[in-house]
Amino acid sequence: MSEELSAASPESSSVPATAAETSADRPWPLRLLSEKLKAHIDRAPAAWVEGQIIELNRRANVSYLTLRDIDAEISLSVTLFGSTLDSLEVPLEKGARVVAQLKPDFWLKTGRLSMQGKHIRAVGLGELLARIEALRQALAAEGLFAAERKKKLPLLPQRIGLITGRDSDAMKDVLRNAALRWPAVQFEVREVPVQGVNSVAQIIGALAELDPDPRIDVIVIARGGGSLEDLLGFSHESLVRAVSAAQTPVVSAIGHEADRPLLDEVADLRASTPTDAAKRIVPDLREELDGVQRMRNQLRRGIELLADRERERLAQLRSRPVLANPDGMITVRAEDLRRLQDRAFSSISLMTTRHRDSLSHLLAQVRSLSPQKTLDRGYAVVQLDDGRVLRSAADAPPGTALKIRLAQGMLGAESTKQLKDGVAAANPESRGKTERI
Predict the structure, then answer these.
(1) Cα 398–404–406 angle (5° rounding)?
(2) What mean pLDDT is predicted for residues 146-174?
(3) Phi/psi class of residue 378: alpha, beta or left (left: φ > 0; alpha: ψ in -120 to 50)?
(4) pLDDT per residue over 264-273, tens digit each?
(5) What pLDDT score does 120 carry?
(6) Where are the domains of the chain?
(7) Contact, 56 vs 65, CB < 8 A?
(8) How far apart are CA 54 and CA 71, in angstroms?
(9) pLDDT at 209 over 90
(10) 223 phi and psi, to 5 degrees?
(11) Would you state the torsion angle of the CA atoms of residues 89, 95, 221, 249, taken in this order, to the nearest 10 degrees?
(12) What is the DSSP-derived secondary structure letter of residue 423?
């Protein structure tokens, strides 16, 4: 701002060139500051703003209105010429949502800053719906409305967080209907404004307070019906993102069946009305008791049917011959056993006889081949002193001591000479020279 106020007045060269150079000894004239402020403000461009009319006074050819921000407690006075309002097709009313082109104006004599309205028009329902639809598409593209992001509600929540208007019918509907369905249900209620400037911030604050509470199993955001403008807060982007980020399942129960703010899209469960929310978050005690009784009856019938079926099977098994006369099976097997034993004994006896005969025949053969049998037929076995059997006359030269084994007993002998062709040599002295041993 020091640059804007740097020019010195031509009336006196002693006036500081810039505001930063002023001091108690070298001040600016008040009019110089006002002129510089006005010159600076006059160069500011006009801007289009959106707000809600909270005051509207029309005096002759000039109208005075106060605009308040949609989401914050910030207001601004605006001055309009009567011709600007007269050119509107639909007259403006208090509470209307408008967009206006404002130009700041500094009144030099009094030092008052005001806003001059150049153009103004009401924001129609069509435009509001178009904005909501554009936001809906943008958030859907981010995946905030995807089904896989939605959390499953607990079957029987022990404590329910309820965010609703102060002493509202929606709160009474949820509390009453939930208690009728499940008397033991407990609520943690947060009463906040559900429309107006502070509604979105306070709803988000209540959600941030209930979400980290480990006792809370599900959170319900409830409001009764209203106009589109009344329900705009429940389509606010910041509220939608806060619900999407919540770790606790959130139920949206806004307005009536036809109302569908963006909160319904991001919530884990959408209830058409607050009463419907109460029906969907807790089970009906009477229905559950009836269901338990039905299941008990079905279980009893199933057990009885199973017992009857098994009883019939036992009766059928007992009527079978094998169970009616179990000794018959043993008798048949005993007869088979005796028959098999007889066959086994017969086979063993026959086999024993056959093998006995075979052994006798083999024994006779062995005995017929015995050396003793050969000796019994008149043969003898001639051995040397060392026990070797004499097989060749050449092995017993004259003078060799011999042993002669007969069928009974043994004889000692001495070789005198060899014979040829079984004829003894001419020496008669050697005949019959044997010795019994």
Answers:
(1) 155
(2) 92
(3) left
(4) 999 999 998 9
(5) 87
(6) 44-123, 129-146+156-283, 289-341, 375-436
(7) yes
(8) 14
(9) yes
(10) -155, 145
(11) 60
(12) B
Please write the tens of the pLDDT for every residue from 8-29.
344 455 788 888 889 988 999 9
Span 402-411, mean pLDDT?
A: 85
Q: What is the pLDDT of residues 409-420, one digit of tens each?
A: 888 888 888 776
Residue 279 tokens, joined? 């029906």
User: Tokens 């963006």 appear where?
Assistant: 262
Q: Which residues contact 257 (CB under 8 A, 6 or more apart)?
A: 272, 273
- Predicted TM-score (pTM) of this structure: 0.56
Quick check: helix, strand or coil at residue 164? strand
**Which CATH superfamily, name and number, covers 129-146+156-283?**
Succinyl-CoA synthetase domains (3.40.50.261)
* Cα torsion 287, 291, 293, 294: sign: positive
SS3 category, 213: coil
Q: Which CATH superfamily is domain 44-123 in?
A: Nucleic acid-binding proteins (2.40.50.140)
Residue 421's pLDDT is 56
Q: Which ranges constitute the DSSP H helices of 319-408?
A: 321-324, 326-368, 371-376
For residue 424 the two structure tokens come to 């003894």
